[in-house]
Amino acid sequence: MHQPGECSSARSEEYSPGTYNAERLPFADGEFDAVISTCGIMFARRPEAAAAELARVCRQGGRIALTTWLSDSNLFKMFLVMKPYMPPPPTPAPSSPFEWGRTERIQELLGQAFDLKFEKGTSYYRELSGEAAWETFSTGYGPTKSLVASLDDARQAELKRDFIAFHEGFRTDLGICVPREYWVTLGVRR
C-alpha cells in the first residue's frame, strides 16, 4: 500500500530510463530498493562484473528479481541451430549467457550478496508457422537479426531453412508453440 501522493513523487524523481552497461552501471552504491532483469543480465560478457554491479546498486534489504533461460531450454537449443552460422568467438571466448541457467552458477555469482530463492517457469512462444517465427526473429531479435546481416545470401537461406525446421518441430493444430523454460531468481540483499 502506498500513501496518497507517494507514487507520483516517486515517478517524479530524477531517473532516466535507457540502456546501460551491466558491468559498469552509472548509479551510486545502494541506490535502488529493487533491481529487475528479464533475460538481460545473462547476456553481459563478464558475468562476475555484472553480478558485482547488481549487488553494488541494490541497497541492503533490497530485492532482486531475475529471469534467465535454463541452460538446456528450447531457447538454448534455438541458439544451437544458429551456432554453425556464427563467426568463431573471440579469444578468450566470452562466457555463455546460459551459465545463468543453472542455479549453482547463480549462487556462485550472487549468493555472497543475496539470500536467493529459485522457481522454474515456462513461457510459450506462439506463431502461425516456423516461417512466421523466422520473420519475427530475423527482423526483430538482436542476436538473430545481427547474424542474418553478417551472412551472404546462400548462408542466410541455409540458416532460414534450419531455423524454420527447428520451430516446425513444435507444430500444433494452431501453429507452433515452443515452451521456453527459465529460472525466476528472487533475492534479498544482505
Automatic annotation (TrEMBL):
It comes from the Bacteria. The keyword Translocase does not apply. The lineage of its organism: Bacteria, Pseudomonadati, Pseudomonadota, Alphaproteobacteria, Rhodospirillales. Keywords: Methyltransferase, Transferase. One of its GO terms (biological process) is methylation. One of its GO terms (molecular function) is S-adenosylmethionine-dependent methyltransferase activity. The keyword Methyltransferase applies. Residues 21-65 form the Methyltransferase type domain. It comes from Skermanella stibiiresistens SB22. This is Type 11 methyltransferase. SUPFAM superfamilies: S-adenosyl-L-methionine-dependent methyltransferases.
